[in-house]
Amino acid sequence: MDYINAFWIGGVICALVQILLDRTKLMPGRVMVLLVCSGAVLGALHIYQPFQDFAGAGASVPLTGFGNLLWKGVKEAVDKEGFIGIFMGGFKASAVGISAALVFSYLASLVFEPKMKK
């Protein structure tokens, strides 16, 4: 059942974003910022964690999950380090995921011969 919940919740999030892109004049970058900020705000309101517990990867993989991750990192760092935690918490919380994305994308570029657009 965990896989089914992850699949349909993630699908609903992606479908809502696609509708937002198709029906409004918002640029994709602004929609991505909206998703990250929404995840952070829902995390601050203690709404996102129960949602993520129910949906699993369906809620943690989209950009709303990244916003929630940044929020949790900042909150923990502020509790531990004080004011300076505002600046370092998000970096510490998301460093592994961002590093993995960079390493795997580099490995993929070695395997698949990327080409520049003309």
UniProtKB/TrEMBL annotation:
Domain of life: Bacteria
InterPro entries: Spore_V_AE, SpoVA
Keywords, in A-Z order: Membrane, Transmembrane, Transmembrane helix
Sequence intervals crossing the membrane: 6-24, 31-48, 83-108
NCBIfam families referenced in this protein's UniProt entry, alphabetically: spore_V_AE
The protein's name: Stage V sporulation protein AE
Source organism: Sporofaciens musculi
